[in-house]
Amino acid sequence: MDLPHYTIGINTNLRASDILQIRVKQVRNHKHMDEIVIAKEKKLCAEAVS
Questions:
Q1: What is the 3-state secondary structure (H, E, C) of the chain?
Q2: Which of 14, 20, 22, 34 has the smallest CB count inside 10 Å?
Q3: Whole-angstrom distance between the N-terminal and C-terminal Cα of the chain?
């Protein structure tokens, strides 16, 4: 990860998999303190119960 990914992760508490999906074109024209809307992906794991 680089500094922008690290900063977004610290400030938003998103999962690494969600942060790594952010592309430059999605945030290129944002200014300092602009709001960034990111939808979290939460995958459910199926567990076998015995």
A1: CCHHHHHHHHHHCCCHHHHCCCCHHHHCCCCCCCCCCCCCCCCCCCCCCC
A2: 34
A3: 39
Tens of pLDDT, residues 1-50 = 588 788 888 888 888 888 888 887 877 887 877 777 766 666 665 555 54
pLDDT for the residue 5: 80
Task: Give the domain extent around 30.
Answer: 1-50
Largest alpha-carbon pair distance within the chain? 53
State both tokens at 35.
Answer: 């709001």
